[in-house]
Amino acid sequence: MALYTSLKKEDMDISMFIDLDKKTRVFYNNMYLEDFNIVIKMPLPNKETTKNRESALETLRIEKFELTKYIYLLNY
Questions:
Q1: How far is CA 32 from CA 13, 48, 64, 68, 75, in A?
Q2: Most C-beta atoms within 10 A of its C-beta, which of 30, 33, 34, 72?
Q3: What residues form DSSP beta bridges with 29?
Q4: Beta bridge partner(s), residue 40
Q5: What is the pLDDT of residues 32-46, one digit of tens each?
């Protein structure tokens, strides 16, 4: 038995934006799921992540997030 149902993009509000983690100096491509207040943060490739693909996958993050509290670089 599945614990989730398949969703179409039309079924939920999704926002995409790019931000910068100032501490680690990594840019992230973010997918914000508004209905759940969750963001999926995918690191954009840089010199370090292209050398070690596994470390790039390890830095994929899913976080509880409130979009109105943060400044982001680019919304698309």
A1: 8, 25, 10, 12, 11
A2: 30
A3: 18, 42
A4: 31, 62
A5: 888 888 999 998 887
Task: Provide the mean pLDDT of the chain.
Answer: 75
3-class DSSP state for residue 12?
coil
Q: Are 72 and 41 in contact (CB under 8 A)?
A: no
Q: Tell me the residue ranges of DSSP E strands in the chain.
A: 14-21, 26-33, 38-43, 61-64, 74-75
What's this model's pTM, rounded to 2 decimal places?
0.63
* Calpha distance 65→46 (Å, rounded): 25
- Sheet with 26-33, strands from edge to edge, namely 61-64, 38-43, 26-33, 14-21, 74-75
Between CA 11 and CA 17 the distance in angstroms is 19
Q: What is the pLDDT of residues 4-23, one digit of tens each?
A: 666 565 677 888 989 888 88
